[in-house]
Amino acid sequence: MTINVTDVDESDPAAQYTVSTLAGGTQGFQDGQGSAAQFDNPNGVAVDANGNVYVADSGNKRIRKIDPNGNVTTIAGTGAEGNNDGAAAQATFTFPDRLDYKDGNVYVSDTETIRVIDNSLNVTTLTGKISTRDDPTVFRDGTLAQARFRNNKGITIDAAGNIFVADQGNHRIRKIDNSGNVTTLAGSSQGNSDGMGTSARFRNPTGVAVDANGNVFVVDSSNDRIRKIDPSGNVTTFAGTSENFADGQGTSAAFNTPTGIAIDSDGNLYVTDTNNVAIRKIDPDGNVITIAGARGVGVGDKDGTGDVAQFDLASGIAVDANGVIYVADPRNHKIRKIVFND
């Protein structure tokens, strides 16, 4: 389809942001400093309180770490495909896609499982199981041992330690509570409707974020919307209406296959609007602006102010306590950094 994009003027808010390359730029596998490091289609990012950035290096089937000085190391995975737990250097992943960080642990969304890398660098499978011909189950609520997922994507953890997962293949948002129970928070079969809990419908949800009040925000990717699940389980559409590109208020804004989402301490949401090749910001009142990217006019690889910067298939996104934004730019094999120019 043709996407209409208005001319950018000097009042463009994206001009107030600067995009740079934190690490990577060449497809491959190599630890090292900044652009000397290599990634292979990195999809997920998370950041801890000390400014360390964790990367789901999907093509390399490894979890990488970028310290505040830009030095990249590998913290888990051998590069072989598998689901072996154990010491991080010997553990294997199937397709690590998204991740989050909480209290010294890295939580990895890995195909049909949730893996945990603890602060002693041991990898365990928290829940889920890779489906097989003998056990083809890809959806089940229950205990950690019983639960099943299908192509799970985004993952986030609230202040109480509850884990929320965008179960893309099952079109559901799942919750893993502190007692080890896995339940469906919202969604059932695919579709597009608001409503209470499992009466709501999503189509390929890929990202989740949770605010301080317990509201869960969902990237409903194939519906081109950002949905909100309040603490009572009621699902509403927070922003977006159809595939297009438009800034604006709530459902007057438009996205094109958004995939990732993060939230800052002020309740602002940041969304990777993947097929528009743009990074969008949504304030707590639902106002949508574009802070970086090419606004649906094409992919690229360019640093600079947000109004000229370019990405190629931006996916995972994270924001630190200082408001610095990190973006996984998989087809450029980079991790990008976005800062607001005070």
TrEMBL record:
SUPFAM superfamilies tied to this protein: NHL repeat (SSF101898)
Chain positions of NHL repeats: 34-69, 202-232, 255-285
Domain Teneurin NHL as annotated: residue spans: 195-243
Entry keywords, A to Z: Repeat
Keyword check for Repeat: yes
Gene3D superfamilies: TolB, C-terminal domain
Keyword Mitochondrion belongs to the record: no
PANTHER family, alphabetized: NHL DOMAIN-CONTAINING PROTEIN, PTHR13833
Protein name (record): Teneurin NHL domain-containing protein
Upper taxonomic lineage: Bacteria, Pseudomonadati, Bacteroidota, Cytophagia, Cytophagales
